[in-house]
Amino acid sequence: MTFDPSHNPPETESEAHARRSSLSAGAARASESENVPKELHTMVSSGQIVNTLPGEAPAVHLRSDDCIEMRRLHRFFGETKAVEDISFTVQRGHVFGYIGPNGAGKTTSMRILATLDLPSYGDSFIDGLSCVNDPELVRSRLGFMPDSFGTYRDVNCREYLDFFARAYGLSGAERSRRLRWVLGFTGTEGMANKPIRGLSKGMKQRLCLGRALIHDPSVLILDEPAAGLDPRARIDLRRMIRDLACQGKTVLISSHILTELAEMCDSVGIIEQGKLLATGTVDEIQSELVAKNELTIRILERASEAAIMLESLSHVSGVVVDGELLRFEFSGGMQEQAELLTMLVGGGFLVAECMSHRKSLEDVFLQVTEGLVQ
Amino acid sequence: MSAVVPPMNSAEFAKSPTATELRLEKLDAWCEKWSDRFNPILVKETRQALKSRQFVITFSLLLFAALSWTIVGTFSLMPAIYTSPSAPRMMLGYYFALALPMLLVVPLAAYRSLEGEIDDGTLELLSITSLSPRQIILGKLASAMLQMLLYFVVLFPCISYAYTLRGVDFPTTVALLGMLVLAGVMMTIVALFFATLSQSRTGRVTMLLVVILLLFAAEWLLGLSAFGLIQYGVDRSFGFETALYYFVTPCLLCPPTAYLLFTLAAAQLTPASENRSTKIRVALLLVNASVAAWIGFGIMEQYVGMVLLFVGGAALIVLWTLASSMLVSESAVITPRVQRDLPQSFFARATLGWLAPGPETGLVFAVINMLLLAGVAVLMMYVHDRVVDSVPQLTKQMAIQFVFGCIGYLTFALLLVYGLMRGLRRKNTPRVEVGFAAMVVVAVFAALAPFAVELYANDFMTFPYSQWQATNWVWTLSRIADGKDHWGVIELFGAVGVAGVAMVLYLNPALVRPRRTATPERVIQEMEKAKLEQK
């Protein structure tokens, strides 16, 4: 299929996408951006961009709390739709996890955000500045860490960071100060005078994070930073990313290690086959996707009687009695759960324990995605 | 309260810096401060090069070769070295020792360095810094030149020694070294240009082979010239005027050619959202102007005469066939960002509009330039006729018909390429190089199709030239070169060209009425802020 700039994507696909993305809280923002007048969007025909409204400059999007925004982003490689109609926003100082199987379109959309590629349609914004129209202004605010190291031979760590500091226009005392800070923050001070080729993978990742931080960007885009790292290095990386978020930096991070992301991210986006399937906080996605929780209650006496009583309730289904334990699916909220427990205690049952089993991010990911790889 | 300073123990005493260390630290700080003024790529490349095994080996080998040749050459010239001029043989040895790193090692290292940046993904990291593609290429070039300087410094005492042996005069020595340095710089730019051309692995291997081949060819050609120069000297072999001409030629031709290659290389590294075309067009204009100046200088000074017109003309036809086919293959869509930087006032739009990117402006730019060149060529011929030597009427007619015939055919082919590429762009995203391929297809088809049809119609027997062969540019131009009159065909193609260009302009009014695009207020503020921070 070839994208025709004079037409919008097929309505049915947009509707389907909107339906799927309405799972999340972030969908509200996504649909908001879909309502942005088409004239504001830049459009790419044949790999290059045109303004859809002749004679007018595209307006600069500005919303104080949103630091990253992807607005109806599309990227086609011939027939392949690498990214298809992705819209989401990330608030300042938040860590956003970008989750998806290999070939889902994570790297492509991150590269567009990093001004390394152009969208076929749509635009992305950093601090309200267009990545398509004002890449040089975006770059000064952006630290990008790709999935490859990108290091040089015959250069030591200090020289490597010094070179990138110079490349970002830092000079004199400012450069020395940033260098010292980066070496200290990433824990590479001891390696400063060692050649890069002798570093371990973990140390190289630290160095590359340092390179992305050298010019003190407000936004960090990290593509698979934890890939191939040992548990300790992963914990260190997680700590560093949280520290950066505490300093007010906005982080967009992709990873396959979902437990890591669940712990460090304020919100996540699940992408598959170029489409954003769900966005929002992990809890929001979990509660949206998982309509029923599994509850386990330990009742010290008369468990079978309690089971009969529970089966009569509308929010409860599939009660299983296992000695003192009662397991069942519960479709109500916290209020209903509290009422249920009050009723059991009021009925004279000795309730010793109540556990709610929510699905993990991995379970949610598996439920949302279909395992399709382009 | 008086502070009591505790006495230093031995370990602390050992750690305290000595006067020399302090001086070195000061020097280091001073160098650090000064290095802020240099291109970061130059600083990085120099650090890398000085540590690299390749530099250490080349430097050591050069030193060893220079010393060895000084000893071996001197002893081989004994005892005549005291009585007769012995510099040529010594100088030849030093030349070949220096030419190897200057023409082969340094350009190849520059090629590998840039190719490595593309291959290892570091170029992408650099492209999101504040470094521009031009700065990246310039940094690589500057680093290569610095290495050349170091190699040159190694050989300088040896060359001075050879000079004292008599037999090679000062102008010859300067010409020899100037030629070597210029060739080294030019070949480095060529290598950097080729390094940016291919993105695929197969393409990179091909490019590497092409570069190695070119470097060896340059080494061989320059070696021959150096041999002649050292053996016969500047004055004795050419005379002062010709020597001046050979001095002016590289001065006129090398800088614009180098600038064109440099601009092309930088354009290859520039993202598609930015304006890659205008600077290339300016570079093409410079090449045009310098070639015209070179031909004019040659004809006015009576050194080479009409031959120069044909040589220069042929080179320009090849250049414009290549360049114009790519210019008309540019994408028609321009980012708002590029639009903002285009000329906004009426006067600027009217005069500089054809430097703006786009296939229509490319077509106009190419046709105007070719016509200007044709005008200059005809003018030069008349100047030659009046001032230097009379040109026979037949030669005049041939030359004029040939020049305008070429332009007519080229414009006709360009219009076809423009149409083809416009069709292709509807469903694809072809690179500009596809335009050149389309030009080759059009040229082959225009010549072969009528020939094949008429051959078939004539039962595969020979047949004379007819109006059916009008699009057969090979046959028509060769007949013009044979002295046949073909004004009818040339006028026909001229008319088709003018009508075609007029139609393109009519169908694309954006060219004559470019859009005004305002820069958003927020962007202006941010840019001003960035400028202030830089100050």
Description of the molecule:
In chain A, the strands form 4 sheets. Chain A has a 6-stranded mixed sheet, with helices on both faces. Chain A has a 4-stranded antiparallel sheet with strand order 4-3-6-7. Chain A is built from 13 helices and 16 strands. Chain A has 374 residues and is of the alpha/beta class. In chain A, helix 10 crosses helix 13. In chain A, strand 11 and strand 12 form a beta hairpin. The N terminus of chain A is likely disordered. Helix content of chain A is 35%, strand content 26%. By secondary structure, chain B is mainly alpha-helical. Chain B folds into 2 domains: 235 residues, no CATH class; 245 residues, no CATH class. In chain B, helix 12 runs antiparallel to helix 13, helix 12 runs parallel beside helix 16 and helix 17 packs parallel to helix 20. Chain B is globular, with a radius of gyration of 29 Å.
Quick summary of this structure?
The complex is a heterodimer of chains A (374) and B (535). Chain A has helices spanning 11-21, 26-34, 106-113, 135-139, 157-167, 172-185, 201-213, 231-246, 258-264, 282-289, 303-311, 334-346, 361-368, and strands at residues 42-45, 48-51, 66-77, 80-91, 95-99, 121-126, 129-130, 142-145, 219-223, 250-254, 267-272, 275-280, 293-299, 316-322, 325-330, 351-357. Chain A is of the alpha/beta class and 374 residues long.
